């Protein structure tokens, strides 16, 4: 029958894989037009084309109508692809909805250690996903969706199987410490993209604040050999002093000798 789990399928969490979807929702999927017309006889290869055509994630909407995303999830549970195939789905960076589908399936069926190792790298994926639920459409980010898979009990109207906490797995030696991007950035190991983004944000902030100070330090030859260019100031020495103080607020630090000369001129 079309709704029967593939022969020889491995039990997941001690039960038929399809039973991971609640009975009410599962029956809604079986009765849906999309399931009958598009999910019949799908294989691990042909389901890729259907996942690429998906335009939003979600569980049920309207009058308890299942989304295409949820129908394909149940189909994956029914055909139970091999682990290597699921990992390839996850690595398909150009197809974000296929990646989201694989992430949800992995969260529901894989061991806790594999779930953390495979899904945590996706927290660096910041692409937008459309989400459809009973309230309508909304936007979420891929990292937000993956984080919900790791922390929440219900995602896309599906009750998630119990997931062992990361701290417990680390204490048991089954999982290494998580690599924090924030810690790497604090240690100066952030990637070039983060640096460029930071420079861009700083430039925008200075432009909005009306800061017109542009400083270039050419070389130090003795105590007073400092080249400062592009500083827009007025003619008087008072304005010169104010401009120097303003430059110090933005990272320009002059030698003590220079500051003493300015004080003498004042």
From TrEMBL:
Bias (Basic and acidic residues) ranges: 195-205
Main location per the UniProt record: nucleus
Any one Pfam family match given in the protein's UniProt record, by short name: PRP38
GO cellular component: spliceosomal complex
Nucleus is among the record's keywords: yes
Keywords: mRNA processing, mRNA splicing, Nucleus, Spliceosome
Record's subcellular location: Nucleus
UniProt keyword Nucleus present: yes
InterPro entries: PRP38
GO biological process: mRNA splicing, via spliceosome
Region (Disordered): 186-205
Function: Required for pre-mRNA splicing.
Annotated family: Belongs to the PRP38 family.
Protein name: Pre-mRNA-splicing factor 38
Organism: Psilocybe cubensis (Psychedelic mushroom)
């Amino acid at each position: 029958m079309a709704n029967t789990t593939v022969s020889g399928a491995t039990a997941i969490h001690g039960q038929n894989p399809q039973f991971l979807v609640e009975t009410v929702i599962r029956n809604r999927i079986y009765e849906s037009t999309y399931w009958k017309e598009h999910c019949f006889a799908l294989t691990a290869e042909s389901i890729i084309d259907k996942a690429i055509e998906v335009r939003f994630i979600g569980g049920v909407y309207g009058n308890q109508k299942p989304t295409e995303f949820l129908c394909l999830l149940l189909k994956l549970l029914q055909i139970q692809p091999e682990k290597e195939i699921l990992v390839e789905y996850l690595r398909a960076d150009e197809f974000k909805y296929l990646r989201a589908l694989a992430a949800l399936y992995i969260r529901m069926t894989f061991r806790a250690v594999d779930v953390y190792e495979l899904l945590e790298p996706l927290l660096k994926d910041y692409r937008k996903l459309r989400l459809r639920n009973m309230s309508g459409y909304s936007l979420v980010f891929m990292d937000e969706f993956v984080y919900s898979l790791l922390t929440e009990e219900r995602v896309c109207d599906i009750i998630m199987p119990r997931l062992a906490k990361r701290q417990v797995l680390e204490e048991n030696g089954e999982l290494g410490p998580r690599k924090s991007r924030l810690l790497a950035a604090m240690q100066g190991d952030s990637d070039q993209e983060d640096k460029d983004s930071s420079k861009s944000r700083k430039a925008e902030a200075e432009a909005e604040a009306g800061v017109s100070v542009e400083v270039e330090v050419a070389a130090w030859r003795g105590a007073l050999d400092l080249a400062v260019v592009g500083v827009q100031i007025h003619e008087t020495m008072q304005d010169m002093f104010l401009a120097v103080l303003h430059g110090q607020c933005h990272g320009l630090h002059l030698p003590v000798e220079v500051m003493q000369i300015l004080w003498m001129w004042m």
